Amino acid sequence: MRVTGKGTFQNSIEVKRCFQSVIAAGTKDFVVDLECCPTMDSTFLGTLTGAALNLRDAGGGGLSILNANERNQHLLTSLGLDHILALDLDGTSWAEERKEASRQLAQCDGQTAPVCKEEQARQVLQAHEALTAANAANLCKFKDVIQFLKEELDVPGGDAKK
To answer: Which of 120, 123, 137 is nearest to 46 (CA)?
Structure first.
């Protein structure tokens, strides 16, 4: 998968759907190319982390990150995600796969399915929970976001809205 543009909560559901469909088809190893991605927000980072954790929990496989710029490398390492995601910092991994991915991506039409507000909020919650599951030190960074979303969605662990 190549991320073109910012990795944000706005495109994280499409990324999650992509991961889910290829995992269901039996794929166990993913490569995400961030060469054309200037930055990522916490929801997008959590979506990548959630996919990696799902692969690990399913008994194998992993998620590799290629071509991350300095800013994205810092985001990944400062949240402790470099222990969950395989970061290719020297640009040598998956050489043949990169060529094939470039060829296939040139044929994509880029259409996406609509997303409802509740699905978006659930994705943001799940992404932030994945960040805290990957590294307990992230809880202090995201606990307020998680609590707010649980309350908004009326899920267990959140104070139900009156």
So the answer is: 123
